[in-house]
Design brief:
With 427 residues, this protein is an alpha/beta fold. It is 31% helix and 16% strand. The chain has 3 domains: 71 residues, Pdz3 Domain, CATH 2.30.42.10; 199 residues, pyruvate-formate lyase- activating enzyme; 131 residues, 3-Layer(aba) Sandwich (Rossmann fold).
């Protein structure tokens, strides 16, 4: 495994260089960065490096953690998904997007390090043994249905191993698991959802949580299975069912265990549950409790905002799904109590289709076209916090600098800490 960087504080700095390789730790080959950290956690460690010409260099360490070595390693190749799920979002997009959007990862290591959901469809017995040996816990697993025949149909993979025995085996060997179901109308809801939920509750405490997420569909579904989104009445019925089961599980196992994604509450036009009802927020990145947390954090911090400028007019851009609760629970305080000249505007998703309503899937071109029509009436534009990647690129590779240059007025990237956003915009 190649070494990309050696920090100046490293005891190896000056002798081990970028471009060298790690051959083994205590006589065993190193698979990836996770494996390196695991194998260097012993009290005594012998590491064999190879220089650019292949010459071996040995080092021995005592009581030194991998992090103390200051090495950045060329990480593992990502394991790819072998399924062809009927709702796969990767297949619902056109050419010309950011390259990573076409990557169908199915890597238990990313599940452990980043909380990515995996189906365990390409996880071998050797992988399972490694997960248990190295305590790669918790894992995040896409279940979708515990009826194995239905699950194979939904994932369009006839080779899928039964999911319950695999989850049970992992759990009994010390691996905590968070699960999700992507719910598709008429396919894995109704009695199938009831069965899935019941089966997973029986695996508690090893299976710790279940998130129920509505299927997301774009307009790019030619030659793909026929699916539809949920109606408001159907979403309300799902919320009612899940909240009923929450009461039962809270009584019997001490946790609500299952949560409906925020999107169900948006579709049904229902108020979000209280912050405490989400417990430890273990499914936060899956869109469960995110809206409630946003509002709660703003309410806790809004009294400490201090004096803000009331002269600036700002246009706050958001997605269609966030607009109702923001306009109901946040913007009235901003405008009426703080007296700020803020306009909240929902941006329709012309690129993916109007059925895609989350701000994180708004492209730069859609945001720019919307803002261009309104920029003359405002002094500043505020973008949603999740529409850019770490390189300040939108999904369609438009850069933030290009966006700002096209508008010719100040453009701010919002934060999940909305009070901090207001301080920055109205300073």
């Amino acid at each position: 495994m190649k070494i990309l960087e050696v920090e100046p504080s490293s005891p190896l700095f000056g002798t081990i260089r970028p471009g060298y390789s790690v051959l083994s730790v205590n006589g065993k080959p190193v698979l990836d960065a996770i494996d390196f950290r695991f194998r260097t956690s012993d009290e005594y460690v012998k590491i064999v490096f190879a220089d650019a010409e292949g010459r071996e260099i040995d080092y021995q360490f005592h009581d030194l953690a991998a992090g103390d070595l200051g090495l950045t390693l060329d990480d593992h190749k990502i394991k790819l998904c072998k399924c062809d799920c009927i709702f796969c979002f990767v297949r619902q997009q056109p050419n010309g997007m950011r390259r990573m959007l076409y990557l169908k990862d199915e890597d238990y290591r990313l599940s452990f390090t980043h909380g990515n959901f995996v189906t365990l469809s390409n996880t071998s017995d050797e992988d399972i043994a490694r997960i248990i040996e190295q305590r790669l816990s918790p894992l995040y697993v896409s279940v979708h249905a515990t009826d194995d025949r239905l699950r194979r149909c939904m994932l369009r993979n006839e080779k899928l191993a039964p999911i319950i025995p695999r989850l049970k085996y992992l759990g009994e060997n010390g691996i905590a698991i968070h699960t999700q179901v992507v719910l598709c109308p008429g396919i894995n809801d109704g009695q199938q959802l009831e069965r899935t939920l019941t089966d997973l509750v029986e695996l508690h405490p090893h299976v710790q949580t279940l998130a129920v997420v509505p299927v997301g569909l774009t307009k790019y579904r030619d030659k793909l299975p026929q699916l539809r989104t949920y109606t408001a009445d159907e979403a309300a019925a799902i919320i009612d069912y899940i909240e009923l089961r929450q009461k039962e599980t809270l009584k019997h196992i001490g946790t609500r265990f299952v949560w409906a994604a925020d999107e169900f509450y948006v579709i049904a036009d229902r108020p979000f549950p209280s912050r405490g009802s989400y417990e430890e927020m273990n499914q936060f990145e899956n869109g469960v409790g995110m809206a409630r947390e946003f509002v709660t954090m703003f309410n806790r911090r809004r009294n400490r905002l201090g004096k803000l400028s009331r002269n600036r007019k700002a246009l706050l851009l958001t997605g269609q799904s966030a607009y109702p609760f923001l306009s109901r629970e946040v913007i009235p305080y901003v405008r009426e109590t703080l007296g700020l000249r803020a306009t909240l505007a929902p941006v329709p998703n012309e690129f993916w289709g109007h059925s895609v309503t989350v701000s994180g899937l708004l492209t730069g071109k859609d945001l720019l076209a919307f803002a261009t029509e309104r920029v003359a009436d405002h002094d500043a534009i505020v973008l949603p916090p999740n529409c850019l990647n770490g390189d300040d690129l939108f999904l369609d590779n438009l850069s933030l600098d290009e966006f700002r240059a096209a508008l010719g007025k100040p453009v701010y990237v919002g934060q999940y800490n909305f009070a901090a956003t207001l301080r920055e915009v109205y300073a």
